[in-house]
Amino acid sequence: MIRINLLSDRDAIQKETTRQQISIYVLSIVLTVVIAGGIHFTLYQKKKGIQEEIRGVEEALKGLKERVGEVERYKQFKKDLETKLSVIKDLQKNKILAVQLLDTLSQRIPEQMWLAKVLKRGNEMTLEGYAIDNETIANFMKGLEGSPFINNIELSLTENKDIEGIGLKHFLITTMVQTSPPQKKVSELKGIPPTSGEASRADKGPSRIATKESP
Predict the structure, then answer these.
(1) pLDDT tens-place string over residues 19-54
(2) Among candidates 101, 92, 168, which has minimal Cα distance to 132?
(3) Is the pTM of the predicted complex or chain greater than 0.90?
(4) How far apart are CA 14 and CA 8, in angstroms?
C-alpha cells in the first residue's frame, strides 16, 4: 500500500507562493525606485537647463543695463553741451544787444542832453541824465520810440538841478528792452530820417555815455 504525504506538498506550495509574492513585492519596490529615480533625473536635467537659461538671460540683462547706462551718460553729456552752448549764445546775444543799445542811445541823444548812467537789469533799463529843459527830454523819449529794441518808455523822475551855476533838468527814464525786435518795426525804422540832434552828432562824433549793467 502506497502512502502520499499531502501535507508536505501543501507546505511546499505555500512556501513557493510566499516566495513569489515576496519577489513580486521586491520587484515592485525596485521598479518604483527606478521609475522615481528616472523622473528625478529628468526633472534635475530640466531644472539645470532652466537655470542655465536664467543665467544667460541675467548676463544679457546685465549687458543691456550697461548699454542703457552708457546711453544715459551720452544723453546727459549732450544735455550739458546744449546748456553750455545756450549760455554762450545768450552771452553773445547780450553782447551784441548791448552794442546796439549804446549805438541807439548815442544816435538819439539831443545836443542839449547827456546821460550820466545806463543801468540794465534783465529786460529793464534805466537811463539817468541831464538836459537843458523838459522839451529836450520829451524829444529824446520820442526818438527812443523809433528804436526796435526799446519800448514801454516812461519818465519816472524829473527835477531841477544846479550844476556849476547852470540850471539843468535831472531825469530818470525807465524802459523795457526787447532782445528780438519785431521785423515790422525794424523795416519801418529804415525809412525814418535822422533828427536834427542826430545830424549834428554825425558831424561832431558820438556822445560820451557813462554805462553800467548789473548782472
Answers:
(1) 788 888 888 888 888 888 888 888 888 888 888 888
(2) 168
(3) no
(4) 10
Question: Nearest 5 degrees, angle CA 5-CA 7-CA 11?
Answer: 125
Written as one letter, the residue type at 138 is A
Among candidates 93, 109, 145, 124, which has minimal Cα distance to 213? Answer: 124
Residues 6+ apart with CB under 8 A from 53: none
C-alpha cell at 139: 524829444
- Please count the residues of the chain: 215
* C-alpha cell recorded at residue 61: 540683462
Q: CA-to-CA distance for 131 and 142, rounded, in angstroms? A: 15
Q: If you compute the radius of gyration of the chain from its CA atoms, what whole number of angstroms results? A: 51
Q: In this predicted model, what pLDDT tens digit does every residue of 45-62 receive, in sequence order?
A: 888 888 888 888 888 888
100: cell is 546796439
Stretches where the chain sits below pLDDT 50 are 6, 184-215
Alpha-carbon distance of 137 to 128, in angstroms, equals: 11
Give the Cα-Cα-Cα angle 210, 211, 215 (nearest 5 degrees): 155
Q: Which three cell numbers stand for residue 10?
A: 501543501
Residue (of 149, 171, 172) closest to 102 by Cα position? 149
Q: Return the ∠ at Cα 82 (arms to 81 and 86), rounded to 5°.
A: 120
Alpha helices of the chain — where are they, by DSSP H?
6-108, 134-144, 183-190, 196-204
* Residue ranges of domains in the chain, CATH in brackets: 1-215 (3.30.1360.100)
In angstroms, what CA-CA distances link 198 with 25, 116, 128, 201?
125, 19, 20, 5
